[in-house]
Design a protein that fits this description.
Length: 196
């Protein structure tokens, strides 16, 4: 992948999938469990009646009436939570953009509160690529950028800037391009200082 100057880019499509999984996985699991609960309401109600023994639920029919209400409530709540999570993931993905201009890497992200990060190439000291086991399985990477002024190598979550989810080949290409531009900037700055 060749990076185009001054052209905003989005993270890959795998990022949208991972953003959605991060935001909607737990509600989706609860949704599936509530369907199972509703499908097996008689067996679960009987198990609850046996478990409670003498302290049966004092409604007509015991646990038979409580299980469908509980299952339906879980079904609706988890569906809404999964739908809201997917919407937030979609908005997060479409509002996360980055670009390489003549002098800096620019990252813009955020839904309600926009955050813009601009890192001049001359300040880039190192670029780390993280590929956890899950990321390796999916063929994606996370790029963490270390800038001048940081004392030690940061953890991935503590970097000055991150490109959170990129295809493996694209991450390597971006890292190579950023290091090349950082080295060119350093040489240009050194030449300027020597002329003064």
């Amino acid at each position: 992948t060749i990076m185009e100057l001054n052209k905003e880019q989005r993270l890959g499509h795998k990022a949208l999938i991972l953003f959605t999984l991060q935001r909607s996985a737990i509600p989706a699991i609860i949704f599936i469990l509530s369907i199972i609960l509703l499908a097996n309401k008689t067996g679960i109600a009987n198990a609850l009646d046996k478990l409670l023994g003498s302290a049966k639920i004092t409604t007509a029919g015991g646990a038979q009436n409580v299980v469908p209400i509980l299952g339906l409530g879980m079904l609706v709540a988890s569906f809404l939570a999964a739908a809201i999570g997917a919407l937030v993931a979609w908005l997060d993905y479409f509002n996360y953009k980055f670009a390489l201009d003549d002098y800096a890497l620019k990252i813009r992200r955020g839904i309600l509160s926009k955050k813009e990060i601009e890192i001049p190439y001359r300040q880039i000291q190192d670029i780390n690529i993280d590929r956890s086991l899950w990321f390796r399985f999916l063929g994606v990477s996370r790029i963490a950028i270390l800038t001048a002024g940081q004392e030690e190598e940061p953890e991935i979550g503590e970097a000055d800037a991150q490109l959170v989810i990129l295809d493996k080949a694209e991450a390597e290409s971006i890292k190579e391009e950023l290091l090349k531009r950082a080295n060119v900037e350093m040489v240009v700055n050194a030449e300027r200082k020597m002329k003064i």
